[in-house]
Amino acid sequence: MYKEKLENILKNVQKPARYIGGEYGSVIKKNGALRFAFCFPDTYEIGMSHLGMKILYNIINSDDNFCCERVFMPLPDMADAMRKNEILLYGLESLEAIRNFDFIGFTLQYELTYTNLLAMLDLAGLELLASDRNDTDPIVIGGGPCACNPEPIADFFDMFVIGEGEEVILEILQLYKACKSEGFIKSVFLEKAAQIKGVYVPSLYNITYKKSGEIDKIIALKNAPETVKKCLINNINDVLFPDEFVVPFCDIVHDRAVIEILRGCIRGCRFCQAGFIYRPFREKSAEKNLENAVALCENTGYDEVSLSSLSTGDYSEIELLLTKLTNYCNPKNINLSLPSMRIDSFSDDILQKIKSVRKSGLTFAPEAGTAKLRDIINKNITEDEIMKGCKVAFEGGYTSVKLYFMLGLPGETDEDILGIKQLVDKIIELYYNTPNRQKGKQISISVSLSTFIPKPFTPFQFEPQLDKNEVIRRRKLLLSELKNKKVSISWSSYDESLLEAALARGDRRLGQVILNAYKNGSYLDGWEEYFNFSNWEKAFADCQLDMSFYANRRRDYAEIPPWGMLDFLVDRDFLIEENRKAHAGITTPSCREKCAGCGVSRCLGGARLE
Amino acid sequence: MRIFFMKKDRAKYISHLDLQRTMQRALKRAKLPVWETEGFNPHIYLTFALPLSLGIESVSESFDVKLIADISPQEICTKLGASLSQDLQVIKAAEPIHKPVEIQKARYEILLSDSEKFNEYLEQDEIIITKKTKKGQAQLDIKPLIELEELEKNKIILRLPAGSGVNLNPLQVLSGFEAFTGAELQTCSIIRTGIFCANGEIFT
Prior knowledge:
The structure holds 2 protein chains of 2 kinds.
Chain A: H1 3-10, E1 34-40, H2 44-47, H3 51-61, E2 66-72, H4 76-84, E3 103-107, H5 114-123, E4 139-143, E5 159-161, H6 165-181, H7 186-193, E6 199-200, E7 205-209, E8 215-220, E9 228-229, E10 257-260, E11 262-263, H8 274-277, E12 282-283, H9 286-300, E13 304-308, H10 318-329, E14 335-337, H11 348-353, E15 362-367, H12 371-376, H13 383-395, E16 400-407, H14 414-432, E17 444-451, H15 468-481, E18 487-491, H16 494-504, H17 510-519, H18 533-542, H19 547-551, E19 566-567, H20 572-583, H21 600-603
Parallel strand pairs in A: 1-2, 1-3, 3-4, 4-5, 9-19, 10-13, 13-14, 15-16, 16-17, 17-18
Antiparallel strand pairs in A: 5-6, 7-8, 11-12
Helix pairs in contact in A: 3-6, 5-17, 6-7, 9-10, 13-14, 14-15, 17-18
Chain B: E1 2-7, H1 16-29, E2 46-48, E3 57-65, H2 73-82, E4 88-94, E5 105-111, H3 118-122, E6 128-133, E7 136-141, E8 147-151, E9 155-161, H4 170-181, E10 189-196
């Protein structure tokens, strides 16, 4: 236990509270349980805001045989102090080195955290490559959205969970426990684990490449399944949802209670990975949601509860739910927060219900400036709906709007770029023509531009990312047109987007690139102040690989993708069909209007969704 | 009502601002009948007697809170105690006697590996430290402010000015000591063991 050693270094690091644990709600277990280190490869403030970690922390700790501790990425001041004082990466509950744990689990939220994984394994005192770790080292397991193409980081992991981890995680831990009681051999455990639904063991798959650099074959070894199907929880209403959170002492990004009101999305926006990999659409009952919210507020003392989903307005009983929640929250001065509202579902009724929410600003994501381009991406929002949503907001007292757009979407022309300006102008005009708006206040609009990044398991997985010069030209075009004191514009760095695009659809050969980049000093790549692009360029060059091969190339429908051994239950033919429709500018209605036949519902043994 | 509590072990890394929020949430979890401010952003109103620097433990912290229903001090202690993390412990609840503005001194128990030269340090003609002020940095002689109560091989007990007037942080005394000996202090723990008003009366 590092308590004494930590005493000496914590007085010299920034915000020491995030490195010492001891928060209300943290679970400390007696010895004897198998130990799982849940690692979030980013800072405490970001990781502690993440709902998935809270869910799995609660599930693992609910079983007496296992115990789960939290681990986050230390910032450089702390990491340096740890190295200097020979403190290995430790769990916040026991303050003991995680290299002595049974499992090290990483949640893979974002491609630019890949070097952090290595930094954390390194700080833990473990070998970075799975093949260099032995039978007594912890099993390193990954899950989360980026596990849908884990190939770039496959060399560092023993196994991945594909899909929803809530139920399968205990099955994996139980298998481990059984294997441990009969003399543990890692390879034997992994071969057995590969038979569990949703478990992908990368060492059991052999990948060969063509001269062109494309994948030639994926060969499953030792009885491992040819395709690993994602696992799903049985019933969203029955799955264990935490009734308490670890309540941090220091300020974190989202310091509030969160309830997951639904999972999946009916919309099918063609760029959106979450919209495809979390299918099918499932709703928790209003009663269950209220029960979760009440339990969490009572047990944490939070004064804000947030409704988590991909699109809160699509919850079929949204008004009933909001009535129930406001009846509970208002007398207790608890704020409600609805972060994921589509502009077309933003109605006066809903606004009335969430009146208690502080009217700071509204965020909407039209994604594209014209109806034509919104059709291509299947965003299915009309300009009228955008105007109607804004009008409701302005009449409700809102005076600032944040709009998200993407640059470089397939089929985008200069006309679509100028369409962003026209849309912004219309919203400003609407504001000043709304008689019931808040008087005496200027409107402020912030426009946030990101670069489109094609992601696996979306209809746009075949698309190239637009190259740098063209993205910059289009951005400049918009900036030169959109000159207005009421509008502020921000954009993401192209280089970061390019790296994200290369990693998102990369293959196993990128493992060496990530390793090189890390060894040359790259980590915390998601933080602008630490991001070093030339480091990455060098790392790619040293491996004779090209970022643009992964990011900027159109991929043939017939090409085997690096994630070809994984199955997220959405048919590949469906994704191809959606891609064709995108190029033809044809939209696909939401799952609620008409089943598009993506294959998920058939996989579950049911008919098409009606 | 004034609630006295200890801030020990891991809890010493909670900053003053974070401690306020921690207590507000604990009071909510405990479902105690406390008054909340009215207006746009209602919240539980707390007044802490004397802020404590990050990294210092204490057995004599307190805050005041307004109650809106009758509840026994015993019940407050039980309920709030159960709603706090293990390193924050409620000592007692009682009607306040002193006002926080009456606070004049605080006592600190300092445990360190070696206090050998501490006497020598105090016997200097003056002990100049650099203090941050609103206008930048200022040089200050802290010698007249330090009252030594006890000095043992591994323990120093100091009484230092605190409260709304002159203030001296024990960390400043120790960094002066480090500068004097030229060596970094090893495993040094500081505990605030008492808060006093005029004539040495214990703040209650």
